[in-house]
Write a structure and sequence with these properties.
Keywords: Membrane, Transmembrane, Transmembrane helix. The chain has about 190 residues and is α+β, with helices and mostly antiparallel strands. It is about 25% helix and about 30% strand. It has one domain.
């Protein structure tokens, strides 16, 4: 496995104090994987790469995200995750107050949003993330994401969002991540 870091985060603890240090990107590839690599393999690879940072709690945040993705994959609403994919986007955040994960997974045509709390999966009609956040992630506009995070990132209490873009390049899967403060603009995002 090859890892290429660009502006990699200093740490993955989801504390508001380190929010600015977390606004970076991480890139890694899964070489030699077949074209039909499935979502569970991608999800597990994300956990292996992001879950290496130890959390002081008995269950790491990244393990909670993996468990949530595993449960989502088993639902009938996630049928698009069981088919061949070109590009997949994930937005995930962790709320330490409730020990819950909020997430949206999309392939541009299909979308599933959910909350995972106390080992229970709750499918949501509407994403916990703003339409503008999702739009910027779908465009993978990391410059605008960082700008918005600086300007409007403290309105929602400093929650850190991990956005991932998974795509195929030269027969390999590439997974890129960007960490940013959840942002909200009162005029735009109502």
């Amino acid at each position: 496995m090859t890892i290429k870091k660009t502006d990699s985060p200093a740490g993955l603890r989801f504390l508001p104090i380190v929010a600015l240090a977390l606004m970076g990107t991480l890139l890694f590839t899964i070489p030699g994987c077949s074209r039909d690599l499935n979502f569970p393999v991608i999800s597990n690879e994300m956990y292996l790469r992001q879950g290496r940072v130890k959390d002081k709690t008995p269950v790491t945040v990244e393990l909670l995200k993996l468990k949530a993705r595993t449960k989502v994959y088993k639902t009938s609403q996630a049928e698009f995750l069981k088919k061949e994919m070109d590009t997949l986007f994930l937005l995930e955040s962790y709320d330490p107050q409730y020990a819950s994960v909020n997430a949206t997974i999309t392939d541009r045509k299909n979308r599933i949003s959910y909350k995972y709390v106390k080992n229970k999966l709750i499918l949501l009609e509407r994403s916990a993330f703003t339409d503008y956040e999702i739009k910027l992630v779908l465009k993978w506009d990391t410059l605008e994401i960082r700008k918005e995070s600086k300007l409007n990132g403290n309105l929602l209490g400093g929650t850190i969002v991990n956005a991932s873009r998974c795509y195929r390049k030269d027969g390999n899967w590439v997974i890129e991540n960007i960490y940013f403060s959840d942002f909200f603009d009162l005029k735009r995002d109502q």
